[in-house]
Amino acid sequence: MKRSRLRAVLGLALLAFALLPRAANAEFSIGDNLSSYTGVNAKGYMEPLKNALGSALNSGLYSSGHVARAGFGFRLELRGMLVSFSDDDKTFDAKTEDYFPTQTTAPASTVVGSVDAVTVQDPGTGATFAFPGGLELDRFALAAPQLVVGSVMGTEGILRYFAIDTGDTDIGNITLFGLGVRHSLSQYLPAFPVNLSALLFFQSLEIGDKLIDASAFTLGVQASKRYALFEPYAGLSLDSFKMDVQYDTDVSGQNETLKIEFDRDTNPHLTLGSALHLGFFHLNGELNLADQTGFTFGLGLGL
Amino acid sequence: MRHRTAWILGVILLSLVFQGDSCVLEQRRISAILGESVPAEFHTRGFTDTVDDSIIDVGKEIKEAIEDIDVEDIANIYISGGCYEVLRSEGHNARRTGQVEIDGNLVLTFDVPDNLKGRTGNSGDGTLALQAPGVTYLNNRLNTFLADLKAGLDPNLTVFYEASWVSDPSPSSGDPDDFDWIVCLNLQVDYKIEIDVPNP
């Protein structure tokens, strides 16, 4: 079971594009289903994906509280972040669009909810409004490669970068870029029994032609202690996440581009994990308690 | 020995990375909704006209909208609302009340406060009201149209719109009407699409 889970998560290693559905017989993207919605419904439809993205992006940034004071070191890492969806994430209170004769609220699928459409009918006229189905997802995974280089004055730099052209004109490019630093606090507290560091990290993610445009920021402290091959670690941080969605619609009778701006989310984030050091190879697994609970698994190669 | 074990574990992990992709993709047949609006344009001129008509090939509009969809995957086509917009206005300005029929079936009534350029409204804001006879008539035509498409036929769905209205205040020879406007019917196409989704 554990091996199966690990295999599944690591399988996402090269693919931020796994975020997006791939049509078997036609071009399709989340934007197609969004096109039948305007503002308030689009927010409700996309909310679980926004929460999962925010939690995933701000995870997997470290696996230790140790930062060397000086000397060259590097590590190429691959992080797989897994967030589970609850039943509450599967539906939202959708409202019929403003042209529907009787404004009606109904529980409809979010982007991760049931594949089935929900329809409501206006009893006075026979007009019908249909809310699209979701992708029926139980979990969301995001993988990101990152490079860690250090150290100067107890500080190491972390770079996350991923860019791919999916070859699908509906989806287009996916670009993830992240940059941050981790600084040793232990150098100022030599008697402290565990390694301590502080992290500052910024990321941006763009999917398609601004279909999803997101930015994440986290600031926190980490602690760890090494026991032979193992190194348990913990971290506490403050996460911030902002996401905008832009898509085309003619739902109101006119072709227009809608931009949906979600409010910035700011949440505390507790991380508990352990690393396993096998010479040149480094493995880690962690539990993340944030806006949404998730797991992160990592593989690192380097010194 | 320890060094060798580390290398073996690393190679195994890397192989898992490159094999894992296919096992996390699952196929879904999801309900997608395509929104479309079919407009009919009317012209109001002079000071005696109270009626105008328009012939619209609704079938052509639908065929263009669903050209990327396999017709067998279409579950339903619904009438979900109506809208209007004043496209051009250079003459008399007045409140307009009236109705729109499709092939003689009342489908919309309207009560619009003015005919200034850019004025819009819809069947949810009180200026336009869908009417059951026209909606029922069109839904039946749409069902037949869809069934014929699925049967491999090339069905026609051309309808005759007729709009009639009264103006308050009325236009006059010195202040005649001169504006163009559209009413539209909002349609939704409910169809299925098979996609691969990641569900690790």
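The beta strands of chain B are 25-46, 51-57, 74-89, 95-102, 105-112, 120-122, 128-130, 158-168, 177-198.
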